[in-house]
Structures are given as structure tokens and as C-alpha cells.
Design a protein that fits this description.
This protein has about 575 residues and is α/β, with parallel strands linked by helices. The protein has 16 helices and 24 strands. The strands form 6 sheets. Strands 14-13-19-12-20-21-11-22-23-24 form a 10-stranded mixed beta sheet. Strand 23 and strand 24 form a beta hairpin. The longest helix is centred in the last third of the chain and has 20 residues.
């Protein structure tokens, strides 16, 4: 062990913290881990493990600020004091008396480092539960206890930080790489990932090697026990263009499937509420939406898409363009036609005479009915290409096929994004509740403040709350991210056992949501570089600052390794 200094006697030493005087040319930095041995005749030897959370240098012998100029010219005698404050992370055995001043202080390495960070306790009957989460400042691997992530003792991850600087998505994908390929998650081959792409097309190259991967990054992956390779089993799904069936993508033209729902799926799955998931959701309107959702579900019962058949539209009231078929039934062949049908049921014929069907209006005032129809009409432009009656639906199914499903939202309107996210989360959660898939499902969703806002209600927020509060028992784990945790529903954040913080805005860092970080860590969060995050987990009483390697998978088109280079890389690796 490397001796680094001694416990100071000029400052108070307690069982929970003490000061260290650094000796000679010793180097002690923030986040360094140290160990001290104490002794008491009644209890014997006690070892204190701790992390440095404050370091300082000061001239002893100076009285006034201007004395520094005399000291640098050698005109007054001064001594340089190099001191560090240590927060105790663990005491073995648990005898809470302070270490003696003058006790030697050593850098914690090897077994001592594992004891300081409780790594030796990260195991179960099947073996180690140490999940690689990055690298510490000293180059050692930082671990998460998998059981606080896979639902055994806890679940869910929350990642906060400034957009474009905090690298939230980069760390989320790195964590997925560790989960799927470190060998620690025993049933990793059964795990599925639903990854929402919310900006650009950055996630559309997870299966391509990164041409900018450096040798240093490869060595970091090796130290972490992870392959420096892209993801092997990925499905890419994008919405269709509004004027056809081709995926609406620009940078990747091969291997991308278009997704949409047909009218029967829309009704049978009860997806109407997710068209009203915006911040203007009203109580009366919400009741009507729930009522109509159930009516549409019953209407579509037993039907098979894509057309939705209705029998209660009189011939004389049919709008132009909608006709009876040979069997005397009306076939709705577009979302716009479904909207016109609902308008007929709620408000009556287009002539303006009479009133709507009382079994559909739920005794709501005409003003509420008209408000509903106005908003539904406005949604046609946003979602008509996603809810169609001209061909069978092909919605994303993250529980089938490839292990990772990347679902693109970037070019969709906010309303359409809400619809897709809400529909998929509802489908996955309900199928897991019914026991239709046994493996774990990891859901990666950025912009949580939009989908689960703190001060507003909505159907997507309800689903996310269900996942946050009951998901881990079902094997549904949310890896959520946002710029500002202060704007996200408290229960969603509070149920995340693992908290990750990247670069923060100064005002955001002072919010109560970050009080779990000591002051020094909140200050450092303002200047964190890309590739570094602060990690908090239940078993370790102090946060860890960890670095994670540059992605081994391309994050944009320019980083894609050409085919000949990819083949050379495979030969080098295997």
C-alpha cells in the first residue's frame, strides 16, 4: 500500500470524517479512496475507509493576504500545508470511535478499494452482481450492484444533464452494452430493449463500428471486460412518410422498417387517450375520452384490420366519399374517416339537425363534445400516416425478433410522439402483466419532463408511474433521462435506484432533487466534461465520479466504419 499522509490532529477527527495531511510529494485528489487503521484496547483493530471530497493547499505562517508576496521572495518563513478532507464510507468492524491523529493514511487499492466501495458484497447465490459502470479516476473499474437495476432489490435508472453536453444517451447506451454483454446479467440473452430515438438519427447506427474509436478507448473497454464492438441484434423502425409507406429517414436507407397502426388495432388496443396526452388535458374531456375508448374497443371487437366496419351510419347521413359495401356495412379506410364517424355519433348528421347518439355522448355538454371533435380534427394532420386503414398495421413489437428495437420519433410532431410513446409503453407493460414475455425489458426514454411532467396529468404519465412503481416486480426497467429532474414527476425519479448526473445548469444544480449529492459534487457537476458522470447507488454512501469510453458503435453517419475497414477490425478483434 502507498502511504500518502497522516490523520491531522489540528482539526477534529470523527468516526465519519477526518482530515489528512499529505506528506512530501504525495498526491491526493478528489475522489481518491483511502484507508486508515485505528486501535483501541477494548475493541482491537478498526479500519476506516473513505473518499476524499475536499482538498486544499495553504501557507502556514502568513497573516495578511499581502504576505504572499513576501513569502514568494523568501522574506518571511512559511510552510506549505497540503490537506484533504475524507468522508468515511465504511468502518470494519463497525465500532464508531475516531481514528487517532498521526495515524498513517494509505491509498485504497485492490482488496481495500473493494471493501471501501462494498464491492465484495455485490454477489448472490449465483455469483457476482458487479456490473461495470465506468472507470474511476485511478483507472479501477466502477461497479453497480446489478440487483439494484434488474428489479431484485431495486430498479430503474434516472439520468440528468444539459442536452448535448451531459451525454445522457451515450451513457444510457453504454449501460445497455454492459447489461447485455458483460456476462453479469444471467438471462441477458432473453432481455429486450426498447430505445426511443428522440433527436436526429444518432441511434440509427448502433450496429455499425465507430471509425473514430481510439486505441485508448479500446483499452478502456478491455479494462471494463466489454467487447469494443457495436450492438449485434438491432431493429430500426421509423414512421412512414406522409405520402406513402417508405420510412421517413435520411441518413440510413437500408435496414429500416416503417411502422404504423391500422384502425382496428387503434380501437382494440384502446389508444385514443394518447392523442389527448398534451398539457391541455381537461377533466371533462378526459372522462369523455375514456368513455369513447371503450366504445371503440367494443365496436372493433372481433374485427381484423385494416378497415374498421360500422353498421350504424344511415345511408342518407353518409358524408361524401364514404359508401356502403356489398354487405351493407360502411368500411372506414382512413383515420380522417374515423374522425368523421365519431363526429356523427357525438354531434349528429352534418346537416346540423338533431343530436348525437346518447350512448356515445356520455351525457356530456355539447360544448365538451365540440371541443373533443375540434381537437380530434386537428390531430388528423399529425397522426393520419400513423393510424391507417389502407393496409394491415405493423406497429413496433419490442418483445419479438431482435434484442434492441430503436423506434424513431425525431420527425414526428409532439402529438404524434406522445401517441407512439404512450401506445408502446402501454402495450409492453400490459403484456408483461399478463405474463406474455418472461425476459426483462429495458426501456430507454429521454425527455421525461415532457412525458411525465411534475404538475400535470395525462395517460402517458399514468403508464410511466405504473412502470416506476410496479415495473421492477414485472421485469420492466425504465432508464429515463431529462435535462431537468426538477420538472419530472417526483415518484418517477424517486423510484430510480440508480441516479446518474452529467453536466448540470447552475440553477438546476441547486434544486432539492440533487440534494443527494454532497456540495462538492454539485459544484463539480457544473464543469463535468463529456464522458464523465456522477453515479449514486443505494449500497455506497458516497457518489462516484466515473468516466465511460467513447462509443464503439457509430453515433452518426460520418462515424460509420466502411465495410472493408469493418472486416479488418473483425480480424483484429477475433
Amino acid at each position: 500500500m502507498e502511504r500518502i499522509g497522516v490523520v491531522l490532529g489540528s482539526r477534529e477527527a470523527t468516526p465519519l470524517s477526518f482530515w489528512v495531511g499529505v506528506e512530501g510529494e504525495g498526491l491526493l485528489r478528489l475522489d481518491d479512496l483511502v484507508v486508515v487503521e485505528g486501535f483501541h484496547p477494548k475493541v482491537g483493530k478498526v479500519r476506516y475507509f473513505g473518499m476524499v471530497d475536499h482538498v486544499a493547499k495553504v501557507h502556514e505562517g502568513e497573516t495578511y493576504d499581502t504576505d504572499i508576496f513576501l513569502a514568494t521572495r523568501g522574506q518571511i518563513p512559511v510552510s506549505l500545508a497540503y490537506v484533504a478532507h475524507v468522508s468515511v464510507t465504511r468502518i470494519l468492524p463497525e465500532e464508531f470511535f475516531p481514528p487517532d491523529p498521526g495515524s498513517p493514511v494509505f491509498l485504497a487499492e485492490g482488496e481495500d478499494l473493494e471493501l471501501a466501495l462494498y464491492y465484495e458484497a455485490m454477489k448472490n447465490q449465483r455469483g457476482s452482481t458487479k456490473l461495470p459502470a465506468g472507470l474511476l479516476k485511478n483507472g479501477e473499474v466502477a461497479y453497480l450492484n446489478l440487483e439494484f437495476l434488474n428489479g431484485v432489490k431495486g430498479g430503474h435508472v434516472n439520468i440528468s444533464g444539459i442536452s448535448g453536453v451531459a451525454a445522457k444517451t451515450s451513457y444510457a447506451t453504454f449501460l445497455l452494452k454492459s447489461l447485455l454483454e458483460s456476462g453479469v446479467l444471467e438471462d441477458a440473452h432473453q432481455a429486450k430493449v426498447l430505445l426511443f430515438n428522440v433527436k436526429g438519427e444518432d441511434l440509427f447506427f448502433l450496429d455499425k463500428p465507430n471509425a473514430r474509436l481510439t486505441e485508448e478507448a479500446r483499452q478502456a473497454y478491455q479494462a471494463l471486460g466489454l467487447p469494443a464492438t457495436p450492438f449485434g441484434s438491432v431493429a430500426f423502425l421509423a414512421p412512414p412518410k406522409k405520402d406513402g409507406y417508405v420510412p421517413d429517414v435520411e441518413t440510413r436507407l437500408e435496414g429500416v422498417r416503417a411502422y404504423h397502426y391500422d384502425l382496428v388495432q387503434f380501437c382494440q388496443r384502446g389508444l385514443l387517450p394518447f392523442l389527448f396526452a398534451d398539457r391541455g388535458f381537461m377533466t371533462n374531456l378526459g372522462f369523455l375520452v375514456q368513455h369513447l375508448t371503450e366504445k371503440l374497443r367494443r365496436l372493433a371487437e372481433g374485427q381484423r384490420g385494416p378497415h374498421l366496419l360500422v353498421e350504424d351510419w344511415t345511408k342518407e347521413d353518409l358524408p361524401e366519399g364514404i359508401t356502403f359495401d356489398a354487405l351493407g356495412k360502411v368500411r372506414l379506410k382512413s383515420f380522417a374517416e374515423l374522425v368523421r364517424y365519431l363526429e356523427y355519433k357525438l354531434l349528429g348528421p352534418e346537416t346540423g339537425e338533431g343530436e348525437g347518439d346518447r350512448s356515445w355522448t356520455a351525457r356530456q355538454a355539447r360544448g365538451t363534445l365540440e371541443a373533443f371533435i375540434r381537437r380530434l380534427r386537428a390531430s388528423v394532420e399529425n397522426v393520419a400516416h400513423l393510424i391507417r386503414g389502407d393496409r394491415l398495421g405493423s406497429p413496433p413489437d419490442p418483445l419479438q425478433g431482435e434484442q434492441v428495437h430503436v423506434v424513431d420519433l425525431a420527425k414526428l410532431s409532439p402529438q404524434a410522439q406522445m401517441f407512439v410513446v404512450g401506445s408502446l409503453l402501454k402495450d409492453v407493460f400490459e403484456r408483461k402483466e399478463r405474463g406474455q414475455y418472461r425476459g426483462r425489458v429495458f426501456i430507454v426514454l429521454d425527455e421525461l419532463n415532457k412525458y411525465a411532467p411534475r404538475d400535470e396529468e395525462g395517460p402517458i404519465k399514468d403508464v410511466l408511474l405504473d412502470i416506476a412503481e410496479r415495473g421492477r416486480s414485472l421485469g420492466v426497467i425504465l432508464i429515463g433521462a431529462e435535462q431537468t429532474a426538477s420538472e419530472v414527476e417526483r415518484r418517477v425519479v424517486a423510484n430510480a435506484a440508480i441516479r446518474v448526473v452529467g453536466r448540470l445548469d447552475a440553477a438546476e444544480a441547486e434544486r432539492p432533487e440533487y440534494r443527494f449529492l454532497p456540495t462538492s459534487f454539485r459544484q463539480r457537476a457544473l464543469i463535468l466534461p463529456q464522458g464523465a458522470v456522477i453515479l449514486q447507488q443505494p449500497e455506497i454512501p458516497v457518489p462516484l465520479l466515473v468516466r465511460f469510453p467513447f462509443p464503439a458503435w457509430a453515433t452518426k453517419r460520418e462515424e460509420v466504419l466502411e465495410d472493408n475497414s469493418a472486416e479488418a477490425l473483425r480480424r483484429e478483434l477475433f
